[in-house]
Amino acid sequence: MNDRPMIVLPYKNGIVTVAYGSRIKVYRPIGGAVKGFLLGYDTSGITILEPRDYHDFDSLYSENITGKKRKIPLTQLGGFAFYPEVSFLQTNEKESDKHE
User: Fold this and answer.
1) In CA terms, which of 40, 52, 56, 93 is 20 to 30 Å from 100?
2) What are phi and psi of 79, to 5 degrees?
3) Biggest distance spanned by C-alpha atoms of the chain
4) pTM for the predicted model, two decimal places
């Protein structure tokens, strides 16, 4: 299936589990939205790689993509959205629905 590590983060009333490098658009109340590849999430915020060349954003994540690594603190996070390769089922997962 996918050999990239998975990242778990809160989404709506549940959680979402997506592959490292998933394309994401992060909304900020000040400074506007930022498009990039999801590199991590923890209690301090979301880390993304904002590609230097936005043509790179049209393809899937690769280690060869260069850009600015950006940490967006949760206090500056207005929301986020994923791109089509993240399925509806991934974004609709709740902790009680998880299967081992």
Assistant:
1) 40
2) 140, 180
3) 40
4) 0.78
HSE-CB at 64 with a 13 A cutoff on CA atoms is 3
Ranges of beta strands (E only) in 29-99 are 34-42, 45-51, 67-73, 79-82
Angle 83-2-63 from CA coordinates, rounded to 5°: 75
Q: How far apart are CA 38 and CA 36, in angstroms?
A: 7
pLDDT, residue 3, reads: 73
Q: Are 24 and 48 in contact (CB under 8 A)?
A: yes
User: In Å, how far are 17, 23, 32, 60, 72 from 86, measured between CA atoms?
Assistant: 9, 8, 23, 11, 21
- Map residue 74 onto helix, strand or coil: helix
Task: Give 69-89 pLDDT, tens digit per residue.
Answer: 999 998 898 888 887 766 554
Task: Give the residues across from 9 on adjacent strands.
Answer: 16
Runs of H (alpha helix) within 1-100: 88-91
CB of 22 closer than 8 Å to CB of 61: yes
